[in-house]
Design goal:
Keywords: Cobalt, Metal-binding
Number of strands: 5
Helix content: 55-70%
Shape: globular
Number of domains: 2
Protein name: Cobalamin B12-binding domain protein
Organism: Dethiobacter alkaliphilus AHT 1
CATH architecture of the largest domain: 3-Layer(aba) Sandwich
GO molecular function, one term: metal ion binding
InterPro entries: Cbl-bd_cap, Cobalamin-bd, Cobalamin-bd_sf, Met_Synthase/Corrinoid, Meth_synthase_dom
Distance between the termini: 38 Å
Strand content: 5-15%
Number of helices: 11
Length: 212
Amino acid sequence: MEKFCGRFMEALLHIDRIKAKEILAEFRSTGKSIYDFFDEVVAPALEIIGEGWEEGSITLSQVYMSGKICEELTDLLLADYETQVPNQAKIAIATLIDHHALGKRIILSFLRARGYKILDYGYGLGVDELVDLVLKDRLDILLISTLMLPSALKIKPLIEKLRAKGTDVMVIVGGAPFVLDEQLWQEVDAYAMGKNPYDALELIEGMSVNRC
């Protein structure tokens, strides 16, 4: 299935929505599921694009539009293939401080494709703004993505403010700072850290079971 991933990535980088949809239709004609499409095509393509941006070979606008197109395709897939996890926790995802949202988009699309309803708080959020949203929506689980270390360090005061408000929301963190320093998630008092969409799914499934 590498040919699908390569062609799909090329369509994303050229911001070719029509071609991306054609590749999706071709993939589904093989009898594979929407989960397979995300696992074998979308996620690998977005990860390679993210690496290209970090290396300087791909522009930020290409990264942004690639994530946007993948979100649109995920919504299209879910419209034709409705599935929801029963009795699920209330979950939201956000990018704290940073304005680079590709990691968030990958996780969001992946979890939605798995049947989870996820509130998308967007990117560039400040600590107080995020605290207000968590309290308003009475979340069970908050997923936070960061790109830069200063943003990652803001998670500790965020959690302190959440606890001071009396909420026991479980905070899962991810992003480059936590991959580079595997102890950082503990230093900011997060509940757990995920390196990829599969980690996030496993953690959410485990946390949902524990809350039942």
